[in-house]
Amino acid sequence: MSLDFEVYDKTIQRAIGFREATSKDVELVHKWMNEEHVYPFWNLNISFGRFKDHFQKALADTHQTLYLGMIDDEVMSYWESYWVQGDVLEKFYTAEAEDQGVHLLIGEKDFLGAGYALPLLRAMVRFQFQHAPTTKVVAEPDIRNEKMIHIFEQCGFTPVAPVTLPDKEALLMFCKREDFEMRWKDEAAGI
Predict the structure, then answer these.
(1) Which domain range does residue 90 map to?
(2) Which residue among 10, 18, 44, 136 is least packed, with the fewest CB closer than 10 Å?
(3) Taking Cα atoms as reference points, which of 117, 124, 106, 120 lies closest to residue 42?
């Protein structure tokens, strides 16, 4: 299995990796979309046939890349990394050409409440900042998802404003490269 990005996280003493999703992952992601902790925020607890069509369109969408996240090679999360330009979110602020956004879910219940959300998010944002022209990563978690908003804040995201998106009321949040690198410089250095 080839990973697109991998980092050892000393806070959890485990390897975190991401690999690009493929059409072979549709059943697993569909299963996760039907989990009680996921569907209130993703609204994709739909029939397998409808979800398969949705997933295929998402895989073909050139303005985003879908990933599966792993801890010690165990697949347990789903990620969407997208370019803000060309996304509905660009209507809510003046996006730079290389701004990226992120969506995520932890699918496997065994990984919930175990302190993995922040290390996973930190690893994904670090991965997104590997693209040198990107100076900002944005997020728009559901405004009701207080736990995830807290994780974004811990990672270095700053709340900007509530926004009304087609599928949810969200909180627009920014994570600027310089702030992220200052906050996590020791972790990046492996100290």
Answers:
(1) 5-188
(2) 10
(3) 106
